[in-house]
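ok trying again, last paste got cut off:
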Amino acid sequence: MIEITADGEEVVATQTNQQRTTDGEPAETPVSMVARIAVIMRVFDEPGARFRLDEVTVRAGLPRSTVHRILDQLLVTGWIQRRPDGYSLSAGASAARNSLAEHPELRSVAAPVLNRLHLDTGLIVHLGVLVGADVLILDRIAGRAPSGLPTRVGGRVPSHATALGKAMLAELSAEDVDALYAPGMLKRTPRTIEDLPTLHQELGRIRSRRGLAYENQELVLGASAVAAPVHDEDGLLGAISIGGPLPLEKLERLGPLMLRAAAHVTQRLAGRELETAVVRPSTDGVLGRMLQTLPADGWV
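nice, full thing came through this time. structure:
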């Protein structure tokens, strides 16, 4: 069985575990991290609902250890609060839950591409959308080893400090970017961009690379990433990225792969098959020769 973990949770498997619903009927266990979070959040749909761990486990139909880990993550993100008499939704949980619920098609279309990127590269893969000046993480796939990255499904990171965010900012007008950062920029590391002129220069370089954005120790020292934007005909904007605790120069060669992956998601969102002329990389070496021989959607 193939397993991919997101914060320690398997998100893809060739076999499906069977749990029991509250009425005793067999139910399929959701295998993606997003789906499991959604199942647990739905337990608290009733106004004023408050449940202990075992009660959440029964109502969600998930393994107790899985529920415990996800509830701990939701406590950190502020979606759930815990009191002596059990867990309940926090005051800001409804807005956070709605943010995730607004992008079901994007998550669904991108999921197989994210899984394949992780399998092919072994790197951490993210899907995000722009919410104000932040990136909301819609999906995350990582290996079992600790990544050291402060990202989780439903969490937010500053867009100007991430490849994900910069890939989306480059799609906006200069005026929109200025408005987003009128209050200023948070500096996360010594390498984080901290002023608008520098950010605009970086966004110009991203546009010249057809949307390919790089992150070089700007969110976390020692970590880098490469990202590309995705969108549909109605203007839905998001981005996908791969990265991890390694030098940026080792990721730069994967730029053509990222552009191809993003083009695949964009074409599928628009309801079209991937066009054969979307990305024909001119990179040298084994990767470039391999991609040149593949049909446009062959690797996915």
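cool. Confidence is low (pLDDT under 50) at residues 1-29, 274-300. The longest helix spans residues 104-121.
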